[in-house]
Amino acid sequence: MPQHSSQTNSSRLRLAVIGGGLTGLSAAHRLMELAGSLPVAPEIVLFDSSSQPGGVTGTVRQDDWLIETGADSFITNKPWAVNLCRRLGIEDRLIATDDRFRRSLVLRNGRPLAVPEGFMLMAPARVGPILRTRILSPWGKLRMGLEYLLPRGRQTDDESLASFVRRRFGRELFERLVQPLVGGIYTADPELLSLRATLPRFLEMERDQRSLIRATLKQAATSRANEHAGSGARYGLFATPAGGISEITGTLTDRLRDVATIRSGVTVTALRPPAAAPETARESRSGWQIETGPGEIESFDAVVLAIPAWRAAELVNAWSAELADQLSQIPYASSAVVVSGHRLEDIGHPLDAFGLVIPAIEQRKVLAVSFASRKFPGRAPDGHVLLRTFVGGALQPELLERNDQELIELVQSELRELLGVSAPPVLARVARYNRAMPQYHVGHLARVDQIDALAAGIPGLELAGNAYRGVGIPDCIHSGEQAAERLVAGLRET
Ligand SMILES: Cc1cc2nc3c(=O)[nH]c(=O)nc-3n(C[C@H](O)[C@H](O)[C@H](O)COP(=O)(O)OP(=O)(O)OC[C@H]3O[C@@H](n4cnc5c(N)ncnc54)[C@H](O)[C@@H]3O)c2cc1C
Question: Is 76 inside a domain boundary?
Fold first, then answer.
């Protein structure tokens, strides 16, 4: 698509979405869905730096392998991803995780052990398995059990995950189970991770019911009763399209191509609000100006900014230093995913789980290994297994300085020791995510409230993405859709 300096056609409403990850695609799609409610038909243009839309998600087919280089599934107890798939007509493509392997492993003294059945990120929903586990020492179990009797802690606005778990359950449960299970999701340092921004339900449990163990046991009893009554959820906790996450991004892209313009491989280098537009602009009327190169300027009536916060800060800095300052204070971590395909006969471990998480105190060079082809069918040819190993994150950024071959060798050596992988992989590739994962540090939600307040004072601009109120796929879809809805509501008012 050639870049150009466009003359705005004043009879049409021009709407821009900057960023073509899941958030931006969802925003553009929602704009498309709502177009009929506007008095004038809008022209929708999506700008994305990457060569194809999808952002940090990506599905690659290689012979009989189906490889997710980024996200591989989404949680179904947040409704927005399933709802979107329904509207896109691909709900029947969703598959659930393979029940036979539904458990996780955690490393203890170099050996993978099963996470006790019913352990819900922080608290046990079943008593027997946590009493029997070898992951915790007898003292660790006793200290954890004391939580049942502990009074409520001092109620604060926010607290780090590490501080909360140590306070309620003791150090051992934190180091051995919670840090690897929760820290891994966010590739974060749990000493800094905000509990309110990531797992608010545990804060609420303490506030409302005092003991998390009590609350979790009660909740588990209720859901068991619901299952018996036949009101179980339609999907398991995680789902994905049979052909991978790119079925969602691909379908969104196809739908959009019919009615919108997608500018792939085009980076927005400057964004100017109407009031700041230079007098000399060759535009027939004032509007949001989007610059994509020297002299490449287009005008829009409204803009959704669906890019990482630090990139958004660069675009708004010239005319809202305060907003830029808040945006740039959201830290980001980098990580790499090393995908490797193996012959099953080359692996000593039965891989009878969805994956292995690794506590920081084990001092290994990998964060987690997802057994991708155990989680979902159709990911590896017969007799083979597909693994996805996570490296780097907030706690080990220095490892990402290694080149791809070095990372593959590092992972190979770790997999040999952890899972008895005795031969080189038959397939290996590295995907790097540089400053892609926002870190929700203590105080994050207060900062996001401030960002929202500042953005609300800028008509025609909406912010969306994983930087704000959730990093998971359903959250990003919701964030993009909400931004589109706010934007359309604003346009209708004016
Ligand atoms: C390795 C990894 C694994 C994950 N696994 C899961 C998982 O299994 N389940 C889950 O729910 N979530 C997972 N996540 C999280 C989730 O995938 C992401 O939070 C989500 O996809 C982010 O989408 P986004 O659109 O907000 O941002 P991005 O995907 O970062 O998209 C932003 C887009 O904006 C573009 N862009 C940036 N600047 C500009 C500019 N100036 N002009 C034009 N375009 C620009 C970029 O090129 C990019 O395409 C994972 C994340 C990572 C990194």
Answer: no
